[in-house]
## 1
Amino acid sequence: MDHRFKRWRSFAGALLLLTLLVVVVVSAQSDPFPQSTLRPKGDFALMVDKLFRTTLFWATLVFVLVEGALVFVIFKFRGKPDDPEPKQVHGNTMVEVIWTAIPALVLAMIAVPTVRTIFRTYEIPKGDGVLRVEVIGHQWWWEFRYPELGLTTANELHVPVGRTVALKMVTQDVLHSFWIPQLAAKRDIFNNRSTTLWFKAAEAGDYPGQCAEFCGLEHGRMAFQVIAQASDDFDLYVGRMQATGGPVAATAVADTGAQLFMMKGCIGCHSLDATKPMGIGPNLAGIGRRRYIAAGWLEDTDANLAKWIQHPQGVKPGVMMPELGVTEAEALALVAFLRQH
Ligand code: CUA
């Protein structure tokens, strides 16, 4: 046996083993790919997934038949040393008709469901049961408004399971693209017209989303979470958000934080009341209970929040939030204050 072949074979063996290992490790986790479009968890995503599988089916069929025929012909009709010159031919109408008709048919099998699905994605769901949400893209965070509930929030979109959500999206600055892989497809957003997207989450859970259009320095850190909840939990959330802006329990450190919130100018950009949108910086009502801060970039821990307040330009260079010369003690007081909201 050829030396090179042996080496290649052991390399292929090692590669196979490694692949198997990765598959085993990965599938042992509950949902190792929360941002995979291949695990649809909502009606919109399922529709797109079905189209993908249809296309994949036809592509696989064509690949297997064509490559199979090619390999068969290569071996069956391979030349031997004393073969005579084969018969010379030119053109075959029948064969040409067949190889035009079959691909045309296959393309039709793909094109019809594709066009149908594209049109369906643009049908905006209407009716009383539909929850309307306005999405506003900012460099580099997401604003969500529920016009019927009078609520505004940022980077965390709570929705009830089993209820259709209709999004109307615009941007405040440059182009962004709204993408929740497991629930809905990706759609660009513009500042001179609105685009739409809709979805219905089939099961409760956290679904990460991401800006999918390069929009500047921190494009990669422009993420968000969709939190699909049972309808009771969603109502609780709405009630809590509607109550923000009211009085909060006073403690010495939180009082200091409250003063700093005004003195340092935080209040100039951030509302702490979900019923009062401001539109400059993210609305901070409910910040104490969010999973992440800085648009999905850091977990919402006290240490991270303090770091973010103290050094926004270190955490996300180029972000609108300026360095305000906050000391560590001041940052902790601000954290204590924000935790009450
Ligand atoms: Cu916004 Cu990329």
Note: The mean pLDDT is 90.
## 2
Amino acid sequence: MEAIKISEHVWWVGAIDWGLRDFHGYTTSRGSTYNAYLVIYDEAVLVDTVKKPFMGEMMERISSVIEPKKISYIISNHAEMDHSGCLPEVINEICPKKVFTSSRGKKALFDHFGLDNLTAVEDAQKIELGGAHFVFIDTPMLHWPESIFSYLAGDGILFSQDVFGMHLATSKLFDDEVAPYILETEAKKYYANIITPYSNLVLDLLKKWPSLNLDIKIIAPDHGPIWRSDTKSIIDWYKKWALGTTTLKSLVVFDTMWKSTEQMALHIADGITSEGVEAKVMPLYASNRSDVATELLDAGAACFGTPVLNGQMFPTVADVMTYIKGLKFKNKIGVAFGSYGWNGSGIDMLEEEMKKIGMELVEPALKVRYVPKDEDLKRCVEIGKSVAIALKERSGGNCA
Ligand code: FEO
């Protein structure tokens, strides 16, 4: 396997995970890549490594350019194991003079692997490594505490670890070689599922961006394509997503036992669309939590429905609520609904969860016993209309 040259002094030496379909609960229907980069001026520097089972692939690609033992330095921008899992073995094999990371990275890599003798770098620190001039940019909690970017002057490459990345296995390594709709779809999914909780930090970073005075020609993240032709689009998307900008779209997310809650969902969706608002219906028996999160990123509203099972929310609904609570989405309105047999406690629980994640509830929860009758379904349509009308009234604000 060969390295791919991305600039005068830099090669991609990462690995392609064609078969990845689940990344800690996030569905990755297009697989992923773990990007590592080899920088060669007078000496060689390896920027990040790959997931442990892919070390052989990375070493083979490095060997197509240089004998791996000739690498003098390693930079670890991010300690999560898809980028550091093979770091101990790589250090043993190539014996670099120094391994650089943030001060918090030193602790994280020690706690993960017992690695010591690492060299900490500070925010804005400039270092020359064998003729290569790097600047380090501290990016704590984007998306781990120890995360940093490193910028290679001369070649103008920003190595941005997970930020600006996406899960996409492709032999086409550059943004201009991938269909734009795939880039936007997968970058959005990545942002929604990984970066959303840290949106305020993204905004801080983008505010600070001009003052960094970096001539960025290429953004090279640790997953997916390298941005060499259009660095503007991904930055504009990040700004839009970080601001919580929403559209005239409402999700209707539910699960169902005997189709009662499903009937309610479909009639709520009908009410939403009758007001000219898009309804995205997501039955949880056919939708993964990470797809719900992706759609929720730019949806202005979300109606959540659950049947009641043994006095609780249905397990798939509870799963989604737990997941999206952690993602801290902004600017959502909605309503809870569902069918029950003995009591509606599971629907009340769902409504409470929606309040806890900061949603503004347009109507009290709609609870129907056993099977919805005509008047119940009419009420569902009315509730869908209410959600759509409320969303349109807000559209002068954050909706696009
Ligand atoms: Fe790609 Fe946060 O690891």
Note: The chain is about 35% helix and 25% strand.
## 3
Amino acid sequence: MSGKESGGIGSLGELLVEFVCTEKDGHNRRAAPYVGPFASGAPGIFIDQAARVGARAIFAGAVGDDAFGSVLRQRLTEVGVSDKLIATVPGIPTGSAFVSYNTDGSRDFVFNIAHSAASHFPRDSKALETLKQFGLAAFHISGSTLGNPAMAKAALVICRALHDAGVAISFDPNIRKELLADPSYMETVRSLLAISAFVLPSAEDFEVLFPGEEFGTFSRRFLDGRARFVILKRGEKGCVGMDASGVVEEFDAHKVEVVDPTGAGDCFCATFVALVTSGNFSFREALRRANAAGALAVGKIGPMEGNSSLAEIEAFLGCRA
Ligand code: ATP
Ligand code: MG
């Protein structure tokens, strides 16, 4: 097939395998059983879920020539994500993460990103052309990718070029507090916020980025500029969003058992962006499904194991698929 299609969803960044500690409060500092490898990386979770709810999807990332790399490639291609821009980098391992949960709800991570294939996503002019030719309605960036300065710089260049080509940029700040002191990190966050059509902070991001502000005040500031939607993810309190015409939609969280909260935010963002850009769902109906997808995501161990199809989300909500 030749020519450009429309309506696709894209993302880029770190692809990781994740290992989850089965005991609490070990802080990754003592021997304990871990389960994994699970396919992971915030942007990877996002693109898997976008494909699950029916979007044409493409991802720019990289894996090593090893068993973990095949876990990731297989996982994404089996849900239909194009791996045209997923490189296999010889000589370095696939990226990885180890997570350990604490009884107070916090989590400790050990990441292997900078010195692994995870930091090598394709970023040359050919890759950009492939993304443009894919026919993207939206391109998503997760703040988790910005912790590495070289990745942050490359991601910003790609997002700016796609934005200039008319693609809606979607940004989940996923702020890393330990990086706040680095001026170039915050500069990249601000630059992405300035070009984003979808501004998708969590409650923690919101407190750091807009301290003391009301949701309505800060949303209007973005929506008066270029944003189409500002959505605040509130964990077990649900979500609230505003669209460019000032309409506010809000949902309480579903009552579910929390098995593994990692990835709920990425799953939520993907569901909302994919459904609302598909043209088949109103703002309210897309947000309702994102809120349900987030609740389903926390119920399974593994960062993207709780991702779900549109039919599963609608069955959970009790609406017709
Ligand atoms: P992440 O850890 O992936 O970065 P996040 O902080 O970006 O997550 P959250 O607010 O934790 O995002 O979760 C996103 C959405 O998932 C919430 O807005 C809510 O709809 C749903 N959700 C999250 N946690 C729960 C929960 N405990 N119960 C029900 N729904 C939840
Ligand atoms: Mg998040």
Note: The domain at 8-12+43-60+67-86+123-318 is CATH 3.40.1190.20 (UDP-N-acetylmuramoyl-L-alanine:D-glutamate ligase).
